[in-house]
Design a protein that fits this description.
Structural class: mainly alpha
Number of domains: 2
Number of strands: 0
Helix content: 55-70%
Strand content: under 5%
Shape: extended
Distance between the termini: 49 Å
Order of helices and strands: HHHHHHHH
Number of helices: 8
Radius of gyration: 24 Å
């Protein structure tokens, strides 16, 4: 690829934030702090900024400008990865708003059963114990695999239910953002209630993913 000189390159926008004062990923990509984002618009903004910050434009620029372009490009890629998918977008928002799980929570979430999942987890553990006994006794693979597939269905149903709940909560959060933009700011308790519910659904979602991964491990045993 032919390198372009700094003189021929489009300069970094004066308003473009530097790594020390970037703000958040939403602001960096020029999108509202919402959970339902237009995928095509997000990609368009990402590609435009990618061209603006691409290091090739600063090949012959002073070292400080070259470093800045590399930093911006790296930060842009991180921002796009975080906001591209709904689940990682929610996770990033929770982190941004101070509602991310605490350091001890990932361990707790993987060991302690969320109350909303108690019934499904109890039934699944019983079924897994019986499947292991069947497998150890030399039962036909088709028999215990069929039982595992049946045991997976309630967990899949729970995952679909959680995805629906996350969608509803995302819409509530976006409504709060729109109200604030129109000068109709809601109370802090409204914001905290939605963020807290999102946090709990995400912890449960992660636990459900672990359950399904456990079933897959049994199927592949």
């Amino acid at each position: 690829m032919r390198k372009r000189t700094a003189a021929a390159a489009a300069p970094l926008a004066p308003s473009a934030p530097t790594i020390g004062r970037l703000g958040d990923y939403f602001a960096f990509l020029g999108v509202p702090r919402k959970l339902n984002l237009d995928a095509a618009d997000l990609e368009q903004k990402f590609r435009a900024l990618s061209r603006q910050f691409h290091p090739d434009y600063f090949y012959n620029a002073p070292p400080a400008e070259r470093r800045a372009s590399l930093e911006r490009s790296s930060y842009l890629n991180d921002a796009y990865r975080a906001l591209k998918q709904p689940a990682t977008r929610i996770g990033y928002l929770l982190d941004l708003e101070g509602f991310a799980p605490k350091a001890e929570d990932p361990s707790r979430a993987s060991k302690e059963v969320p109350p909303a999942l108690l019934e499904e987890v109890f039934a699944l553990n019983e079924e897994l114990d019986e499947v292991r006994e069947l497998r150890a006794s030399g039962a036909a693979a088709d028999d215990w695999r069929a039982r595992l597939q049946r045991a997976r269905q309630p967990i899949e149903d729970k995952r679909a239910e959680h995805e629906e709940q996350l969608g509803e909560l995302s819409a509530k959060w976006d409504a709060l953002v729109e109200d604030a933009a129109m000068g109709r700011a809601r109370s802090e308790s409204d914001r905290r209630a939605v963020l807290g519910a999102l946090r709990e659904r995400m912890l449960e979602r992660n636990y459900i993913s672990n359950l399904l991964a456990g079933i897959e491990r049994e199927l592949n045993a």
